[in-house]
Amino acid sequence: MKILVSAMETSSNVHLKELKKYLPNDIEFVGVFDKELGNPLYDLSSLAIMGIIDALKKLRFFFRLRDEMVDLAKDCDKVLLLDSSGFNLPLAKKLREKYPEKEIIYYILPQAWAWKKGRVKVLEETCTKLCSILPFEKDIYTKKDKITYVGHPLLDEIKEFKEKQIDSNKIIFMPGSRKTEIRNLMPIFKELIENIPNKEYILVVPEKFDNKYIEENYGDISKFTISKKSHQALYEAEYAFICSGTATLEASLIGTPFTLAYIAKKLDFFIGRTFVKLPYVGLANIFFEKMGKKPLHSEFLQDEVTVENLLNDYNTFNRSDFFDNSKILRNYLIEGSSENVARIIKN
């Protein structure tokens, strides 16, 4: 079987690698994905976008890529789209127009529940099967036969969950993966460790970053121990300070108490607040709100991200409640998604 794959995000490819473990060896991927999984059209690094201006500069390239993907689909048995709604939704429309009978599976759906609910209609009209990783997501869809909650990929990818609270003397710092996030948070994190003495400070750095990039964007990190294994680092830590993103959900599931701290460009934050009508930023908090529960962790955004606020949260955080809620969150998500999505693809 040959599958056209569009997986343009680093996180999507982490999920795709886990998914492939459950697919037959004779399945071939074509399209856009990590080169570890086959022979993609382009290296993922050439597809990275940082902000609106960069997106506009690369617009012509992405139109050409979309057309190439549509042509490739001719010889493919099925299509698998992961996340990246800005590219994958227009691609799904083109594919449906040209191949009315082609099976199109969308895994890691656009967050239509957060904003742009008009995407729901597009997804239902263009896709054969919608694989949801959020239990509440199906509520906004009208064609219930198309959408299935398949579980959450992090429950496959995280190998160890805490069974009890630990005092390891290790504190994790995860300032994100984008330049703006890193450069905004690192000065605050460096000042913060001066106020939390006698600990080992672990700085988690994405594996893709080389020494030059680290030096240019993180500055002096001589007081930190570097780790490129986020799940292992979180499992061994007694506390964490984390930029918004998937890492906050990882910490919530593993059972490591943390404080969310996020500083975006002012324009990006304004646009986000204008269009995204959600009470929280952290995914675990969004899940708990859907369950009618109090937030799992604290959130400090923009000007609220100060050494004083982060230090106070660290000192007053109810670690026992967090640990209990971490178990509730794992039960809420039920199971991992990879095997279930593989079953849908094979069928």
From TrEMBL:
A Pfam family cross-referenced in the UniProt record is: LpxB
A GO cellular-component term linked to this record: membrane
Q: Which SUPFAM superfamilies match?
A: UDP-Glycosyltransferase/glycogen phosphorylase (SSF53756)
Q: Could you tell me which InterPro entries the record lists for this protein?
A: Glyco_trans_19 (IPR003835)
Asked if the keyword Acyltransferase belongs to this entry, the reply reads: no
Annotated GO biological processes are: lipid A biosynthetic process
Q: Which residue windows are coiled coil?
A: none
Q: Which UniProt keywords apply?
A: Glycosyltransferase, Lipid A biosynthesis, Lipid biosynthesis, Lipid metabolism, Transferase
Whether Iron counts among this entry's keywords is no
* NCBIfam families listed in its UniProt record: lpxB (TIGR00215)
The role this protein plays is: Condensation of UDP-2,3-diacylglucosamine and 2,3-diacylglucosamine-1-phosphate to form lipid A disaccharide, a precursor of lipid A, a phosphorylated glycolipid that anchors the lipopolysaccharide to the outer membrane of the cell.
Q: Which chemical reaction does it catalyze?
A: a lipid X + a UDP-2-N,3-O-bis[(3R)-3-hydroxyacyl]-alpha-D-glucosamine = a lipid A disaccharide + UDP + H(+)
* Listed GO MF terms: lipid-A-disaccharide synthase activity; phospholipid binding
Q: What is this protein called?
A: Lipid-A-disaccharide synthase
The EC number(s) this enzyme carries: 2.4.1.182
